[in-house]
Amino acid sequence: MGHLLEISNLKISTPRGKNLVPLLDKVSLNVPKGQCLGIVGESGCGKSITATSLLQQLPYPLRVTEGTTAFDSFQHGKVDLLTLPSKKMRNIRGREIAMIFQEPMTSLDPIFTIQQQMFEALQFHFPRMSHKEMLDKCLSMLVKVNIPRPEQTLSSYPHQLSGGQLQRIMIAIALMNDPRLLIADEPTTALDVTIQMQILDLMNELKESNDAAVLMITHDLGVIAETSQHVAVFYAGHIVEEAPVMELFHHPQHPYTKGLLKSISSLSGDSNLLYAIPGIVPPGGSWDAHCRFAARCEYASEKCLKDVPALTEVASGHLCRCFLHRQEVEA
Ligand SMILES: Nc1ncnc2c1ncn2[C@@H]1O[C@H](COP(=O)(O)OP(=O)(O)OP(=O)(O)O)[C@@H](O)[C@H]1O
Ligand SMILES: [Mg+2]
Q: Within a domain: residue 140?
């Protein structure tokens, strides 16, 4: 199966004094057509900056300092999203690649009705659509995302709707132009658990019916289990493990992934104690030249404090960055 998006060796840095310090490095990922790739990791490990860099929306003063991408655009052929001229990027953003954020209010404008905002998203890419066509499209999208009373919702302002409804509307807007890739950055974190499940089910359904690929970003392995076929575990600005989803859940190899899994299974187990991996993620740019997880790892040996382990294949399609499995050092 072809890849819709290939990311090779992505590095993102920020200026600090006279230097550029890395916040993310050596990230390579493939998003196959029609599938969901999950990215999971603790706060600050570089999930969101990976996503925003793909749409050329990195927050200032962050910048991409290495790497390339290949996106299979139906308008422009194979393109590198990182260096695409802004006019072409505007054609792709919201049309071929749509993004949903954790907090719908960051994307919806409080002073415009839902209809005005949905119309704007359509008009930008389809300026010749008639009023009637736009209205029909918006109503059918709201029905698709299970919004009750869609007409009334169209004339509402964001503050008149609940968080779950707003997130459904964000999904409707994101999918309205039939994107080939949907990037969802913590799309359900702000919602309560039952609504979370409904939204994830809805995203899975729409992904199937639109044949879209999804890049699902989350700190929650439960969300990955619900949505993803393949998963990359981020830790301190790089990938520490990557595998098909069942392989990762049943045969995790990296001590960090094992810790993440232990912290969710302790929620459902007999123990009253909630397991948390001891210690904290080293902040961006302050990584020593050794395994970034070593300070928190119960298996850390001398080697782990001397060299950076390379991301190597431990089973077919399963990569892990740990000296317990392979002694290879990163070049
Ligand atoms: N606007 C910014 N200015 C400076 N540094 C930033 C900015 N945005 C992110 N960073 C840094 O980039 C690194 C990665 O941040 P990112 O937001 O991608 O993390 P994340 O994995 O999405 O975390 P979370 O789960 O909290 O959303 C962090 O070290 C963060 O401090
Ligand atoms: Mg984030």
A: no
**Cβ-based neighbours of 84, under 8 Å, separated by 6 or more:** 56, 76, 92
* Alpha-helical runs (H) found in the chain: 47-54, 86-92, 114-125, 131-144, 150-154, 163-176, 193-210, 221-227, 245-250, 255-268
User: Is 39's C-beta closer than 6 angstroms to any atom of ligand 1?
Assistant: no
Q: Calculate how far, in angstroms, residue 154's C-alpha sits from the geometric centre of ligand 1.
A: 34
Calculate the average pLDDT of the chain.
92
- Ligand 1: which of 21, 42, 45 to mutate, most ligand atoms within 8 Å of CB? 45
Q: How many domains does the chain have?
A: 1
Question: Is 105 domain-assigned?
Answer: no
Asked if residue 117 belongs to a domain, the reply is no
Q: Which of 184, 183, 219, 238 is nearest to 11 (CA)?
A: 238
Structural domain containing residue 294: 3-96+179-320
Output the residue whose Cα is nearest ligand 1's atom 17. Answer: 48
Q: How far is the CA of 45 from the centre of ligand 1 (A)?
A: 7
Give which of 72, 78, 51 is closest to 3, Cα–Cα. 72
**For the CA of 185, the nearest ligand:** 2
CB 263 within 8 A of CB 41: no
Residue 87 has pLDDT above 60, yes or no: yes
**Residue nearest to ligand 1 atom 25, measured at CA:** 43
Distance 48 CA to ligand 1 centre (A): 7
Q: 285 CB less than 6 Å from ligand 1?
A: no
Pocket of ligand 1 contains residue 22 by CB under 6 Å: no
What confidence tens digit (pLDDT) does each residue in 262-305 have?
887 655 555 555 678 888 888 887 888 899 999 999 999 999 99
Question: What's the whole-model pTM score?
Answer: 0.93
Cβ proximity of 326 and 309 under 8 Å: yes
**Is the bond preceding 61 in cis, omega lying within 30 degrees of 0?**
yes
Look up the CATH number of the domain holding residue 279: 3.40.50.300
Q: Looking at ligand 1, which residue's alpha carbon is closest to its atom 8?
A: 59
Residue 128 counted as domain residue: no
